[in-house]
## 1
Amino acid sequence: MNNIEETIKSTLLNLDVKYEWIQVDPEFADTQAFTDKYGYRLDQSGNTIIVGSKRGEKKFSACIVLGIHKLDVNKKVKSLMATSRVSFATPEDTMLITGMLIGGVTPFGIPESIPFYIDAKVMESEFLIVGGGSRSGKIKIHPKELLKIPNAQIIEGLSL
């Protein structure tokens, strides 16, 4: 187990999150590849996406949507962040902010200073697979476990 996985598992323990750890071949960490290889559906996968402002003071937020939906970056997230332009964070910014690679980003490792927005549709799932902090692990949880994250907010219409 690497350091980021140890940190994430410690965070899960501290937040009293009930979870199942799924070991993953890093080559299959991206959502579509993961679901194809391991037999899960896209609507059982949650994509944690970092979004950054493009103008003015640099601001970031983290959002989670189901794998079957697209994040409404240009309207909903822009409005939530109260900025004129936003875009997906680069892989470099994502690593700098979270310490995690794309394909492994978990909401349980997002700094508390960054708002965490949960698409309301995520909460309707029987269970959810999210990143494990690295490309070699995923976390299976009930969506309500996301609400244990201190800065979590459920948002209607976060996805398209």
Note: The chain has four helices and eight strands.
## 2
Amino acid sequence: MRSRRIRPRSGLRNVQVVDSSYMSQSDHDLLAIEAATIYVLTDSGRILHKSSPDHDAGPRFRLASCASGNIVLVRHDVGESIAHAIEGLAAREPALPPPDGAPVYLNEYRSFLAVEAPVESSDSGLIWTFPDRLDYDHPADLVRSDTPAGDRLLAGLTESGMPEALAKMGFVDVGEFWTPWCVALHGEEIASIAFTVGLGHASAEVGVATVPAFRGRGLAAAATAGWASLKANSERVLFYVASRSNVSSHRVTQRLGLRPIGTDLTIA
């Protein structure tokens, strides 16, 4: 088993995602790339904040696991003694084959973090990577960022305001459309949006939000496949992460044939 702390790095048919040299990496190496995609790290390998445009603080602890090892990250503001104790436990954590299993030392991680501040939340998720090629047919019209149609869409939303359904999901203005993005339409309505929640040197991670009234129709998969086909993503290794309990997101990965590479635990 290996345990690693990450260091920072200086309509739709027959969607082609260009192969990257990262695609030949092991699952353990891919987990390391994913961690450096979603987080900005300090020189010592601590989480500084998320790499998303809002620079969310991120979790105080994150453990990503696959059958061949673990990736351990602790946030920069966790005290040194607590961080070392957590890292020591994580070094003994058995590697977990996805998607089953829970960390052996879950309660201990929570207890150590609670010494400094109450544990606000924890979540267990699954991590996927995209195949070299996606084949997904769906009749939805797609609108992509950095295109004339995308510019018109943003201009219209700026002028008329965000639809209520999107605002309820947190899209208060067009600044929430983190580029690059792809929208799937149902008629003239925005049904689902796939947007970039993490961006690395040669990697990207997608986040997907679908209006409740349009869920279960394959629109999230259409938007996600459209995002993967964007020119900006053509040379990148791409990731998708979802909570274990998010069954709708799991269906997206099944529709697109994404490959599971590991699990993650986050504690905030």
Note: The radius of gyration is 19 Å.
## 3
Amino acid sequence: MHRFFYRPQNSDSQYLDIVDKDEMHHLKNVLRLKVDNEVSLIDGKGAELVCNINQIKKDSVRLEVIKRIQRKKEEFMPQVTLACAIPKKSKIDFIVEKLTEIGVDRIVLLKTERTEVNLKDFSQKAGRLEKIAKESLKQSGNLFLPEIMFMNFPELVKFKKENNFDVALMPSLVKDTQKIKDVLGKNIAKNILVVVGPEGDFSQGEINFARENGFIPVRLTESVLKVDTAAITVAGFIKMFAK
């Protein structure tokens, strides 16, 4: 069933309208759907509406709601916030796409000492990254759109203190790390923070600062992973292992 985003309207109404130009174009001109075809609407916050196409107009598509589903985030434990050092070029698009597919709850794009990017300028790309996340959400079948945030390293440590994380993980190349499965095996973790560093790892100062504030250095594999590979690997492992 084809899925589309919608802005919540009258929740009790039998009929809803798609007015977003991109969604209408995809429905009418790309998929060439017709009246009476069945589609699904999602809002990125756990709601899914199964609908029949009722009318196709020039500036809107009217849908008749035939089934309503509402899910809660608590049904999809653990909740994962993944902070990832911003890589060069277009890797971040790929990271956002794949982390959305996996079901990460928050994606923090992180400025570290070894990140060669201006965070303020990069945050202007938030709209494009949200669009990538929405497309990935529709494809994956997940119902919750991840929140995309921008922070530097000290802000992330402050964010950790202000939120009730059960465990905070820091994949690192330093020698005295624990296996990630051992750490998760010791903790009943329903709310997990994990931070992935840049190419070449975090600076020693960042590692020390993170440890002082409760981050646990862990290793994922015996191989040295690129930032996009590490982010996707650790998110998938946590979602699979920590249930």
Note: Helices lie at 21-30, 91-102, 119-122, 126-140, 153-162, 180-186, 204-212, 227-241.
